[in-house]
Every structure is written in C-alpha cells, then in structure tokens.
Design brief:
Chain A: One of its GO terms (molecular function) is demethylase activity. The complex is a heterodimer of chains A (494) and B (122). In chain A, 26% of the residues lie in helices and 26% in strands. In chain A, the strands form 6 sheets. Chain A has a 7-stranded antiparallel sheet with strand order 7-17-14-21-12-9-8. A 5-stranded antiparallel sheet of chain A has the order 1-5-2-4-3, covered by helices on one side. In chain A, strand 25, helix 11 and strand 26 form a beta-alpha-beta unit. Chain B is 30% helix and 20% strand. The relative contact order of chain B is 0.28. Chain B is globular. Chains A and B meet through strand 23, helix 10 and strand 24 of A and helix 1, helix 2 and strand 4 of B.
Chain lengths: 494, 122
C-alpha cells in the first residue's frame, strides 16, 4: 500500500510534489518521470490510482522539490510538452502522529520527560510557613499595576518598554526574609546568586505572553518560585509545545537552552488539564522571578534568539499599537478625499511624529541592527565625506566609520535625543565624535547647497503620507549634493 | 551642536536667499574630547567655509583660528589642533541659531538644534 498524500496546511514548499495531468493514465510511465527527474537523488514516484491522471513525487528535501517544481512548470519534451499542474503535497498524518500532536496541549507535572536541556523543577522548595510569611510581607509592598497583573521589583527595576534593567541604578534590596531561601537556592544552583527579583501577582486565569527573557539583560539561569496557586507554563521552540505544571512552593530553574532558546508562556485560561490529575481550576498565583543582571553583551550559541547578536527584540504590545495607528492613517489616506496637502501633513503629525516621540526609547531599543547593504554603501564613500542621515532614528549608522562626518536629523525630537546619546562619551560606548544631530524635516533639509557627498534616507519614505510628498522629498534631497552626479541612497524595505 | 554642523546648515525658510551662515546665540558652550585625526581634517578641509567656521568659533569663545587659510597649513600641527578643536570638540549646548536674512531664531537645546519650520515658512 502506498503512502497517502494530502494538501499541505500552508503554501510552504514540502518535499513532495503533486503532478496533475501526468502519469500512466495519460501515457507517461513512472520510468519516464524518473528519467526526467534523474538529476535529483532518491526520487520516489507514487501513483495513487492508475486510472487517474495524477502522481505524487517525493524528494530528499524540500529544496529538491522546489527545483523540480520549477523544472516541471516549463514544457517537458519527454511529456510531449503536456502542461502539468504542479503543487506541493504533504504526507497524511497517521493516527499515532495525530496522538503525538495532541500531547502538545497537555500539562505534565514532571518536565524531565521533555528532555529540555537546562529545565528543572524542584518541588517543595519552601515550606508552607515560609510561603505564608512571604505572601504576608509582599502584601504590604508597593505594587506597580500592569495591564493584567501587578508587579514589584527588587535589586533593579525591570523596564517593560525596553525589556531591560538599568545596571547603573539599583533599586530597593530584596526582602530580608528571603535570606534562608536564597541560601538554599545558592546551594541548589552551584553558588549562583541573583541580584534582581520581580514579583508577579496573577489573578485567576491571567497569563503571560510567550517570550524569551532579553539575553542582553540577564546572565545565568532564570529562576521562578511559585506561591499560593498552581499554573501551567508552556515551553515553545521550533513548533514544539511542552506544558509543565508549576505547583505552589516549587522552584522552576531555566538554564542553558531552556533559558536562551525556549520561549515560556502562561496560557490565559481558567483551568489547566494536568496529566494524571485532570482539570485544575486556576487560582491566584504569585511568582518570584530571580535573575542576575548582565553587564556585558551576550555571546550565547543561539544568535537567532539573542538581542546582543543577530536578533531584534520582538515588538511590545505598545509598539504594535503604534503600528496599528500608522495602518489606520494609511487607510484614511486611501479614502476618495485624499490629496489635501495640509491634511496629509496633519496625518503625519498625528500618526507618525507623535507616535515616535512617545515610543522613542522603546523604538530605539529595537533598532540596532545595521542593514548590511547600507553598511556596504557607507563603506564605499571616500574618506572625509560629508553624509546627511535623514530620518536618522536612534543614530545607528553614526559609528559605522570614523573617517567621515555624519549629520543626522530626525523629525522626531524624541528620537533625536536618543541619537544624541551616541555623541556623548558618557553613554558607555565610545562616542561618535564625527557625527551630530538636529531636529529637522526631511521635506525641507536645512543644509547649504553642495555641501554633502551622500544622503542616507533609510526606511523613511513610508512615513510620508502621499506620493507627492515623497517626490518633493526626493527632489529636495538631490538639491544639497556636493556633486549632483554623486551619491544618494534611499532604502525602503518593501 | 558641533561647528562642523553649523558649517553645513543653512536657513531653509521659503524665499530666503542668503541663509548661510547662521549667527549664533551662545548660552552654554561645552567642549567634548574627540580623537585627533589629521587625515580626517585634511580630507574635510575642502568642504569647510572658513570664514563661517572662524566667526562661529569666535562666538563660542574660541578665537585662535587664523584669519585666512591655505592648504599648506594642513601640515602644521598647531593649526590642525586648533582646527580640530573648533570643528569637532566645541559644542553649543544651549542657545540659538539666527537666520542672517530674516532674524528667525531656531533654538538649540541639550546640544540639538531644532530646525523645524512653521507651516507658513515652507
């Protein structure tokens, strides 16, 4: 019996192709198909029904399938140039596989069975008396109200806009009552000592969005002590979902891969299905998350998850809301009444400039990767070049070279201030001494004509609300060149 | 704001013919160390409007720049040091840039000039 195929769930290439208008039913033998595809290794041709004009071809990997699809979409002489319907196919899941998938939603009391490196759960880490005393003491602390839960910070305050701490400004020390617990923790974790504590108070049913704690913010493990009630926590990586039940008084230790590469998530739901126990209603849960502040960039082996390396932090809800505002501004512009110049300018003020002023510190913390093509362009400039960086944002291109001058400008005073931090030697990094910042509008560049070698205008045009305004910006940018045949770079990510 | 920036800025109000150079109102001036790189100074020299730099430096209290310059001076270390200091180290922290033609003031705050125009100026 041959393998059963089905349509894939999405349009991504798979390692199997469906070929319609092909096969023994229309006079194309399996042998002929195999010959046409002889350049690919380990090709298997499956004919589900000899009377139907369709076959499935399986390849070693999706890359081969992709190349084969390209080949087969062109006329093939061996098939008498017969036009084929070429689509990706997927193997039908067996019952056992479906079962396995359902495992994903379940919550286990023992994370050891998941074999996630670095993940441990220490049951009964504190006594009921210790738990009660802690809850009583925390009740008198000063809570900071977040959207759905409330928090207290000790050691260092955690800033949710940047998802980081400021190592230069310590906050209130941890409660003295934690002393014996911290000692036990130190013993259990090879001498590790946390210096930052965030207390979260979750009402019944409240969860936590999936996230990996900012790599650049903390070093070592992340440790969470649960009080009062049980909650499920799900660990996610590469499509895998592994649920762990966190009972009260247990200590969860996330270290290594579990801390650096697996996202953790508390589903927002009223009850959790715990293996071997059944449905458990969520009650209030207090968690104490212990962390150690990092003071140098992270160099872990997971650059794809690491904000010190290749990865940008995903946007916060606040940033997403700002994006939505922009989208609605775009929508407003496509109304028939569009075109009024003043109207367009107003929209930019309301939806672009004000938003950037408000989100500047956060926005900046998510934009530090230098686009490689832009770096290439900057490196191609002659020594001593004068470059305007129009819409410079946080000034991430200021320090690419020290032998050219970069005049940054941004329409947002908030972002200009963030960029200006790069100019002062107190910022911790070496200062960009050949750069400078002004608040100015890209539509009316404030430079004398002929003074610039190049203009960087990167990811700016999409902020201008009409095509006319974009064209005006292009022309004015060209005006200020030292040599009009010279350089300009306008990068937009499309 | 460094004086290299001042040397490139020009008043861009619609209709203004001679917007360069801005006059400077200096309320607070600072000096920040910058790496001394003679080659950078030689390369950038051709781009600098000398009279504007000299006058701007003087209005920030730096008056050791020569009246006139020539390319030979770029081999003289004392001159390069003075040029470097005026161009890259002296910064206007608080004050204003004043358009030479219209007298319009653009404020400079925390070292950042604000050159945004009003609607009727574009």
């Amino acid at each position: 019996m041959c393998a059963a195929f089905t349509k894939p769930k999405d349009s991504c290439p798979t390692s199997h192709l469906f070929l319609g208008n092909c096969g023994p039913a229309v006079g194309i033998s399996i042998q002929t198909i195999a010959e046409v595809l002889h350049q690919f290794e380990n090709v298997t041709v499956t004919v589900p029904d000899a009377l139907l004009a369709r076959v499935y071809v399986s390849f070693q990997n999706s890359q081969s399938a992709e190349q084969a699809a390209e080949l087969l979409r062109r006329p093939v002489p061996a098939f008498d140039d017969r036009p084929l319907a070429v689509k990706y196919a997927a193997l039908k899941r067996t019952e056992a596989e479906e079962d396995q998938e359902q495992q994903d939603g379940k919550v286990s009391t023992d994370p050891r069975k998941f074999c996630i490196p670095g993940l441990r759960l220490l049951q009964g880490f504190i006594t009921q008396e210790e738990e009660q005393a802690l809850v009583n003491e925390l009740a008198h602390g000063e809570w900071e109200e977040l959207a759905r839960r409330r928090v207290q910070h000790f050691g260092y305050k955690f800033h949710y806009e940047t998802r980081n701490v400021d190592p230069a400004s310590p906050a209130e020390p941890m409660p003295a009552r934690l002393g014996p617990i911290l000692q036990r923790m130190q013993q259990a974790l090879d001498g590790w000592v946390p210096d930052q504590l965030t207390v979260n108070d979750y009402a019944p049913g409240v969860g936590l969005s999936p996230h990996i704690d900012t790599h650049s913010a903390f070093t070592g493990p992340i440790v969470s002590l649960s009080l009062v009630g049980l909650s499920a926590m799900e660990f996610r990586r590469h499509g895998l979902r592994r649920g762990v039940a966190l009972p009260p008084r247990s200590l969860l230790v996330m270290d290594g891969e579990a801390r650096l590469a697996w996202a953790h998530y508390i589903p927002h739901r009223k009850s959790d299905y715990v293996e071997g126990v059944g449905w458990l209603p969520r009650t209030r849960r207090i968690s104490l998350t212990f962390r150690q502040v990092r003071r140098s960039p992270c160099t872990c082996a997971y650059p794809e998850c690491c904000d010190s390396q290749a990865c940008q932090l995903p946007p916060t809800r606040k940033a997403l809301a700002a994006q939505e505002l922009q989208t609605s501004a775009d929508a407003a512009l496509s109304l028939p009444s569009q075109g009024a110049r003043a109207g367009a300018a107003c929209l930019e003020v309301a939806y672009v400039h004000q938003v950037y002023d408000a989100i500047a510190p956060h926005f900046s913390s998510t934009r530090f990767a230098v686009w490689p093509k832009v770096r290439e362009f900057i490196n191609s400039l002659p020594q001593g070049a004068v470059v305007a960086d129009v819409g410079c944002g946080n000034g991430k291109y200021f320090g690419v070279r020290s032998d050219i001058a970069v005049l940054g400008s941004d329409r947002s005073a908030g972002l200009a201030q963030v960029a200006a931090q790069r100019l002062s030697p107190t910022s911790g990094n070496s200062a960009c001494t050949r750069a400078d910042v002004a608040v100015a509008d890209g539509l009316t560049l404030p430079y004398r004509s002929g003074c610039l070698d190049a203009v960087l205008c990167i990811a700016v045009m999409h902020h201008l609300s009409t095509e006319q305004r974009q064209q005006v910006a292009d022309v004015r940018v060209v005006d200020v060149f030292y040599d009009k045949s010279n350089w300009c770079i306008i990068f937009e990510r499309l | 704001m460094k004086l290299i920036t001042h040397n490139m800025l020009s008043c861009h109000i619609k209709g203004v013919k001679n917007g360069f150079p801005f006059k400077i109102q200096a309320d607070k001036v600072e000096s920040r160390d910058a790496d001394f790189d003679p080659q950078f100074l030689r390369n950038i020299f051709g781009r600098i409007e000398w009279d504007a730099l000299r006058d701007a430096a003087a209005s920030l209290g730096v008056d050791n720049l020569p009246q006139t310059v020539s390319a030979e001076m770029l081999e003289d270390d004392d001159f390069l040091q003075a040029f470097h200091h005026a161009l890259l180290e002296v910064t206007l922290e608080e004050g204003a840039l004043i358009c030479p033609e219209t007298g319009r003031k653009f404020s400079v705050s925390k070292g950042i000039p604000n050159l945004l125009l009003n609607e009727d100026e574009t």
